[in-house]
Design goal:
The protein is of the alpha/beta class. Helices cover 38% and strands 20% of the residues. The strands form 3 sheets. Strands 2-1-3-4-5 form a 5-stranded parallel sheet, with helices on both faces. It is globular, with a radius of gyration of 18 Å.
């Protein structure tokens, strides 16, 4: 399996997985015109085979696939290597959206959707998945966590953390602004780069991040809920134990 780093000049490789040929063709056309190298698959096994042959920089993945659904495809691909995923959901049902985010999708788009909006989402996720310039972003340390934004690497007490693109961005943002409470709207704007969107996206990502950085996610001490406001990163809560 050939894994590659996104290359803005050559064009990032996007794998589009959807069993609806019309949707796949429209999405592929828009992404192709935007300068991406696009692969297509109509089902889960086909998606895994395509990814094994040419590892994508990002996957646009339909949730409701025949046989192996999008959730299982996402799990299996993440088992092979890190890759950003944008999930397509056929319904506006909140359970579907949260399922996609819980399994590790970096974003989701609900059908019917604007192809132009999807291209913007792809650009946003890819941009944040690329390493930051080393000079602009030094290592961050707090409460047993060590994060290198340039290498996009995070550890907890020396153990590597497996973070998705958005989880990593969220952790970096919290580490850069310790002790300050942020509303979910602020986090969506600052971390996701959007002035609109479903705020449950932030809620689910905070929950997933807690599951990886907290000693007891059921009783979080680092990423604390500020009732009526949002969330605050409180390194001082455990600093005396480090």
């Amino acid at each position: 399996m050939e894994q590659r780093t996104p290359d803005a000049e050559a064009g990032a490789r996007v794998l589009v997985v959807d069993d609806d040929p019309t949707v796949a063709e429209i999405v592929t056309g828009y992404l192709d015109r935007a300068g991406y190298v696009v692969d297509r698959a109509g089902d889960g096994p086909g998606a895994l085979a395509r990814a094994a042959a040419h590892w994508p920089d990002l996957v646009v993945l339909d949730l409701m696939l025949p046989g192996m659904d999008g959730l299982e495809v996402c799990r299996r691909m993440r088992g092979r290597g890190p890759v950003p995923v944008i999930m397509l959901t056929a319904r506006g049902d909140e359970d579907d959206r949260i399922l996609g985010l819980e399994v590790g999708a970096d974003d989701y788009v609900t059908k019917p959707f604007s192809p132009r909006e999807l291209v913007l989402r792809v650009e946003s996720v890819l941009r944040r998945s690329r390493p930051a310039p080393a000079a602009a972003s030094g290592p961050l340390r707090a409460a047993g966590l060590a994060v290198d934004p340039a290498a996009r690497r995070a550890t907890k007490r020396g153990a590597e953390l497996a973070l998705t693109v958005r989880e990593f961005d969220l952790l970096v943002f919290f580490l850069r602004h310790p002790g300050r409470a942020f509303a979910r709207e602020e986090l969506m704007r600052e971390v996701w780069g959007w002035d609109f969107g479903d705020l449950s996206t932030v809620t689910v990502h905070v929950r997933r991040l807690r599951g990886k950085v907290e000693d007891d996610p059921a009783r979080p001490r680092l990423v604390q809920t500020v009732w009526g406001v949002g969330y605050r990163f409180d390194a001082a809560a455990v600093s005396g134990e480090e």
